[in-house]
Amino acid sequence: MAVNYKSVPMREQLPDIRRKNFDEVPLGYSEEEAVEEAQRCLQCPKAPCISGCPVNINIKGFIKHIQNREFKEAVNVIYESDTLPCVTGRVCPQEDQCQAKCVVGVKGEAVSIGRLERYVADRDLEQRANDTKSIEINENLKAAVIGSGPAGIACAADLAKAGIKVTVFEGFHKLGGVLVYGIPEFRLPKRIVETEIETLKKLGVEFIKDTLIGRALTIDNLFEKGYKGIFIASGAGLPKFMGIPGENANGVYSANEYLTRVNLMKAYKFPEYETPVLKGKSIAVIGGGNVAMDAARTAIRLGSEKVYLIYRRTEAEMPARLEEVHHAKEEGLIFKMLTNPVSYSVDDKSFVKKIECISMELGEPDSSGRRRPVPVNGSNFEIDIDVAIVAVGTTPNPLIAKTTPDLKIGKYGEIPVDENNMTNKPGVFAGGDIVTGAATVITAMGAGRNAAASMIRYFSDIEQ
Amino acid sequence: MIKIIEKYKLGPGMNFALLDAPLIAESAEPGQFVIVTIDEKSERIPLTIADFDRENKTISIVFQEMGKGTHRLANMQAGDFLYGVLGPQGNPSVIHENKDVIIIGGGIGIAPVFPIARKLTAHGNRVTSIIGYRNKDYVFWEDKMNAVSSSLLIATNDGSYGEKGFVTDLLKKEIESGKNIDEVIAIGPPIMMKAVSDMTREHSIKTIVSLNSLMVCGMGMCGACRVTVNNEIKFTCMDGPEFDAHQVDFNELMQRLGTYKNDEQKCFEDWQEENNGC
Description:
The complex is a heterodimer of chains A (464) and B (278). By secondary structure, chain A is of the alpha/beta class. Chain A has 3 domains: 15-131, Orthogonal Bundle (Fumarate Reductase Iron-sulfur Protein, Chain B, domain 2); 138-237 and 395-463, FAD/NAD(P)-binding domain; 241-392, FAD/NAD(P)-binding domain. Chain A is built from 18 helices and 16 strands. A 5-stranded parallel beta sheet of chain A has the order 3-2-1-4-16. A 5-stranded parallel beta sheet of chain A has the order 6-14-7-8-9. In chain A, helix 14 (290-301) links the parallel strand 7 (282-286) and strand 8. The longest helix of chain A has 23 residues, at 441-463. Chain A is globular. The N and C termini of chain A lie far apart (57 Å). Chain B has 2 domains: 2-89, Translation factors (Elongation Factor Tu (Ef-tu), domain 3, Beta Barrel); 100-211, Nucleotide-binding domain of ferredoxin-NADP reductase (FNR) module (Rossmann fold). In chain B, the strands form 3 sheets. Chain B has a 7-stranded antiparallel beta sheet with strand order 6-1-2-5-4-3-7. The longest helix of chain B is centred in the C-terminal third of the chain and has 17 residues, at 261-277. Classes of the chains: A alpha/beta (464), B alpha/beta (278). Chain A binds chain B through residues 171-173, 181, 209-212, 215-217, 235-239, 241, 243, 247-248, 250-251, 253-254, 256-257, 260-261, 265-266, 270-276, 278, 349-351, 394, 397-399, and chain B through 23-24, 26-27, 35, 37, 41-44, 68-69, 83-89, 216-217, 219-224, 226-228, 233, 235, 238, 252, 255-256, 258-260, 263-264, 266-267, 270-271.
């Protein structure tokens, strides 16, 4: 059979329409489209795609089942390695992972592994939630999971399935962590996250919201309360700012604040929802990652006339997922590459009015292997703006470190762990962004599952 | 869900609520705050903890009706449930021993200074409390403040109760009397805290203020609450809410508090109209 080098496109909302709503952009495959796409998979003996996946999903195996229209079997193969396929099918940077290794991709378009994953996972989502039954739980084996983001969810699910009594502590008043406050509805519909949480509840997982570990309770308090193992998945932490003049002007946001206002607090439905956000006619977003892209595309949907993406390197170095860059361009995002902000100026009421930038050029490679951007002297210029969103990364939240004196902390404030996701403190495990710094949903989820496996071993040791 | 056990008016637009919040009551300390969500549509409303009772597992909040959120909160009654209360947040007040301390509370800011004054007194400090109200109708917790202070001084803007003038007028007298003052702790409207700070700076008296900056998450992930202290960015929720007053950029704090003035007003007016309509 001849190899088909073109992948089956996924239907999407058209750019002019989706610019005005928060509904999901890609609409998903139909059964026929999914099977047709799956047929493009060569079922290579070595299946290099699997080694490209951070959690080594048996990609070849699940695609084979789709070829045979065995959709339930297909998704079950994914569940062996991935707790949240509806999520990862949507937000994984497949082009850098599994699809980068796809043999078909050498000469043509790689097999759309992410889209196929999404298809079978979506098909099973409701069914799985309905089918999930609680299993017998050993009330003496209590585990605490700190944070209800991807790492926490994945860990809690595996612990609960092993009969351990799990309590998840979440600081916010809603569950899901970055999946609800960070990633916008148009990229990840919140009903998916809600269904995943419902499934966990059916497994017997208890959730305690509005409770921040490190304030209301410390790690040691949790041990005193009878938790025998603790998984810290508290996430990425405090937003970084650039330290340039005018950065505290009204209308200058961290991406975390902007996205939290719009996603978690639903400021796009203001005043029905009561949290406001400055909409702005002309918006500058600073950064080149997925968070910058999410903020920029959110700003477009809130009706801004011009949204600029200001990034100090070139598009080739942008860490953002390719599909998001592509979608953002279609939606009219203005790319200002090789550009770095220098300062903000304000009006008489301290609202931001202009951003001054300097042009950059690429010099010698830096520690990341990417060519270092250096300013071009005298190239300063201004852009009129009324909102700026700073998306230049985060630093770990220091609270748990500060309140757990015997927990070893790395030099950037991260929590170091061994290959079992165990910290230096007995019974305390950690995973996700608090360990790695800002990373992807799938690596956090993988860490959560690895930690759960270690915790299950740890529990069986202490039980004996 | 958090149950409101008791709820009453303290004065015009001023409200007291007692909440059934065992976990928060267990660890709350003076100087800390909570974030209240009324329901899924509500803003996250930061409020200082006005009191806590570990035995009865309750905390108290005191709040003024400002926008839609606090008006809706004011309309709730004993027996109603709040969607969520996060806390205790922020760092507890630093309490020294055996010092001469002046506590200043302005308006609704008197509620959060009360547990601080109580703890100071319990730690052998001599506490002079200066509290200021708009006029006599707004007077609340005079007796509570009296019970935890070595001496209590009261001012009203119009002189209808206590001395006529501002808390800074009474502070000035205390400073000029030549008494020893080791520390001043002031909580109230930013303009009041700024005025106190300007006055004590001249006399090199250490002064602590509790900042009521904009806030969304309250747990160090959003940066909405950032303030400039000693020319550095600090997060009120993580590094504060109490800071050395002489290092705080009050002008920036007040400017940032004005960010959503128009939105908030519109939101409130729409709500008022709706409510009057039905």
